[in-house]
Amino acid sequence: MASGKVAVIKARPSVVASFLLPALLLLGALVVYPIGYSIWRSLFDASGDSYVGLDNFKELFTNDGIRTALKNNLIWIVVAPTVATALGLVFAVLTERIRWATAFKLIIFMPMAISMLAAGIIFRLVYEQNPDRGVANAVMTTVHDSFADSPAWPDAQPRPDGPVEAQEDGSYLLTSPAEVGSPAMLPLVAVPQPELADAAPAAVPQAPGDQVTGTVWMDFTRGGGGTDGAVDPEEKGLSGITVQAVADGEVVAETTTAEDGTFALPAEADGAQVRLAGSDFQAPYNGAEWLGPSVITPAIIGSYVWMWAGFAMVLIAAGLAGVPRDTLEAARVDGANEWQVFRRITVPLLAPVLAVVMVTLMINVLKIFDLVYIIAPTSTQDEANVLALQLYLSSFGTDSHQGVGSAIAVFLLVLVLPVMIINVRRLRRENQR
Questions:
Q1: pTM value?
Q2: Is 216:188 a contact under the CB 8 Å cutoff?
Q3: Taking a C-beta distance cutoff of 8 angstroms, is the pair 105, 422 a contact?
Q4: Which of 160, 188, 198, 237 is close enough to 260 for a disulfide, judged by CB 3.0 to 4.6 Å?
């Protein structure tokens, strides 16, 4: 063979066709035919008998549920790829400077080994409202309770038809004025027995005659019996409750109940009304409503980023390995700090890789279905809806309309095609360099 020439092996067309035919048949059966049938089906009504033209496509922009899905898809396309790529870039750059980079990358990439279904189940539990089950709210309540006092008895309520009345601000007010030498009895109920396990027995205060005294206690005897409004032997005192003496709308004295529920106010409280502060009976802080209508979409995006940030990190780390080190060192020698090197040299050199990652993730989020379907409860699924989920619901859900479902499928194809073309062209340009 002559020097500088490349030998080309020519094959007969029949041989080429025999090799390509199975792949072409498979491609036609799994790709071409479904696309063609979806386009044809989108032009007919729900039964598939009557031709309706573009009416199904008009439905995409007039139906409130589908419009919500379109809006959510726009949020997904903008937020999810951007956040995942940014985190991947940060992780890729930082792991170059740590000794245990391989272990760190393994941990970050590990969620990619989990299926979308399994990840959805995991985050459905993570986002549970009850802090005893949901990890997210368990962390939030722990941090919150570290800086704020928890309510003393959040379940306690005044005894029905008793001397204590609930106020609009959440406080409990003794209807009769306080008197020196006459104990103010404030019976409460509805406290679960487990919360009373460590409580001391309630007592009637024995205090000097120059103070206003009283007792706040759980006025309930297990097994029945006892006297309403009176402290019985088995009944428990409610400690730590803020007791206030209120006169003309102002607090003139304040104290806190002891372990046995007793309290003592100075003589200034004589003739005032005794009030139990509402802060002692407020519901405890249980964190955010992650699965509620206001934050359900950001919550699901967070689970997606958890899965795909590792994918972005691996691709960006591969691109970072090809960045010339002498360029970075030259910038540092010229006096650039690490932030300037990162912003003006590393990021521009990684721009082609970042673009590929962004485009790949944009295509991926257009098809997002599993996470939304699993994580979002039925009550908020409409607020978290996306096009792929709406396609499924329109085609196979209650009151299915496969014409509209096919129109959504065609619309998704139209959205994905430009992004795919851009990605293919970019890859070709990279290969030609």
A1: 0.78
A2: yes
A3: no
A4: 237
Q: At what angle do helices 351-366 and 402-432 cross, to 10 degrees?
A: 170
The tokens for 151 are: 């309510």
Give residue 427's pLDDT band: very low, low, confident or very high (50, 70, 90): confident
**pLDDT recorded at residue 1:** 46
| Token output for 43 | 């032009």
**DSSP, residue by residue, 67-120:** HHHHHHHHHHHHHHHHHHHHHHHHHHHHGGGSTTHHHHHHHHHGGGGS-HHHHH
Q: What is the mean pLDDT of the chain?
A: 88
CB atoms within 10 A of CB 1: 6
Q: Give the pair of three-digit tokens for residue 325.
A: 């080190």
Q: Are 196 and 218 within 8 A, CB to CB?
A: yes
Residue 5 in this model has a pLDDT that exceeds 70: no
Q: Where are the domains of the chain?
A: 50-130+290-432, 157-280
Rounded to whole angstroms, the Cα distance separating 137 from 193 reads 25
Phi and psi for 218 in degrees, rounded to 5?
-85, 105
50-130+290-432 CATH choice from 3.40.190.10, 2.60.120.680, 1.10.274.10, 1.10.3720.10: 1.10.3720.10
Binning pLDDT at 50, 70 and 90, where does residue 72 land? Answer: very high
The torsion angle over the Cα atoms of residues 366, 367, 373 and 375, rounded to 10 degrees, is -60
